[in-house]
Amino acid sequence: MNLLPWTIYISFIGAFLAWLGGTRSAGLARWTALLAALGSLGVTLSAAVQFQPAAAAQTLVNIPWVPFANYHLAVDGISLTLVLLTGIAATAGILFSWNIEKRTGEFFALFLALIGGVYGVFMSADAFLLFVFYEIAIVPKYFLVAIWGSTNREYGAMKLVLYSFAGSALVMAGLLWAHAAGASFDMANFVESARTFTAWQQIGMFALIFTGFAVLAGMFPFHTWAPTGHVAAPTGASMLLAGVVMKLGAYGCLRVALPAFPEGFLFFQNIIAGLAIIGIIYAGLIALVQSDFKFIIGYSSVSHMGFVLLGLAAATHQALSGAVLQMFSHGVIAGLLFAVVGRMVYERTHTRELAYLKKMPLHRLLPFAAFVFVLAGMASMGMPGFSGFPAEFSILIGTWQHSPGWALLATLGIPISAAFTLRAVHVSFFGKADIGATTPDTDNEVHPLPPITWPEKAGACLLLLVIILIGLWPSLLLDWIRPALESPLMRIAINGAAQ
Amino acid sequence: MPSSIDILWFIPALPLLAAFIGAISTQRMRSVASGSALSAMAVSFGLSCIALKDALAAPGVHQVNNFSWVSVGTFNLQLGFLLDPLTAFMLVMVTFVGFLIFLFSTGYMKGDENYAKFFCYLSLFAAAMLGILVSNSLLLTFICWEVVGLASYLLIGFWFFKPEAAAAAKKAFITTRIGDLGFLIGLIWLHSISGTQLFYNNGEGFLETINLVEATAPALFAISAIGILLFCGAIGKSGQFPLHVWLPDAMEGPTPVSALIHAATMVAAGVFLMARVFPLLEFGSALTVVAYIGAITALLGAVIAVAQNDIKRILAFSTVSQLGYMMLAIGVGVWEAAIFHLLTHAFFKALLFLGAGSVIHAAHHEQDIRALGGLAPRMKITFATFSIGMMALAGVPFLFSGFWSKEAILHGAHTWSVSHIPFYIGLVAVVLTAFYMTRLMANVFFGKPRSHAVEHAHENNWVMTLPLTLLAICAILLGFLGTPAFPWLQAKLLGKDLSGALEFGKIFEGPGLMITSIVLVALGLGIGWAIYGFRKRERFGDADPLEKRFPGLWSALEHRLYFDELYAATILKTNSLLASFSDWLDRWIVDGAVQLVSKLGTLLGFINRDIDEQCLNAGFNETAEEIRGIGNTYSKAQSGDVHGYLRVMAWGFVAIVILVSIALNI
Question: What pTM does this model have?
Answer without folding.
Answer: 0.84
